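Team,

Forwarding the record for the chain on the shared tracking sheet. I've put the sequence and predicted structure together so nobody has to dig through attachments.
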Amino acid sequence: MKIWILSTVFILFLSCKKETEINKSSQNNSVSAAENSKKDTLTTKHQIKEGIFNFATDLCDNKGYFDENKYTKEELEGAHKLYYDLSGILLEPPHVFRLETLQEVRKNQDKILEKLDKEFTEKKISLENLKVVNIPYWQNVKKQEHKALIQEYELEKTQIKAYSDPSVLLNSSISKKCDRFVKALNSNDSQLTEEWRKLREEMSKRNSDPKRIMDEFENHLNSPDKKDYAILDLVVFGWGNCANEDIIRPQHDEKMNKEFNALFMKIDSDCDEP
């Protein structure tokens, strides 16, 4: 009986010792896993591959430090192009502000349109192939810029044709809110002059020298070329400015500036005095 009791106690002791060893092993494994996880996290945090992107703004030469695991220099160049290079008018048609230029555009219309077509095609392909950082904000800016380019092209092409033949505006799908100018340009001399005068009066109110604007109108009104002067004003300052307001362009504002700067860990700038 005594031997049996001792045997039982010995077996229980061995069982408890084994369970303790298993628990220790389990705890050790948990600690080891936690330490490995911590090491992996620290390693991930420090796996930044620093790159440098040099770019210019109006008064500054800048050096931006970025993580090459996130973006490439080519993608940053694309974002910079959208942010800085494409901030204004995208195409370069003739600027018609004088009667002599109006006559030159009429004379060389076909060549000017051919040049415009070529410029548009080149810029459209360039914009479509532009690689930009894969962030929704910048992808959306690229889409907006593409749409604005197409709208601007249609406007400029129509305007160049309208200098010689204002009737092209009648069938244009561009900005129906500009109908007052379209009707005037395709009406009799009396209605043309009336709308022309209204336009000049509106222009004078926005100008720092309103008298000059109206004196110029009176001089042109008494000129043998008064109809051409009227067409110039109504196409450029009337219909053209009105239609241009409908082009939806990306806002090159403080938000875009912040979004661009956010692509970098830090930026060093060397700036000239304004």
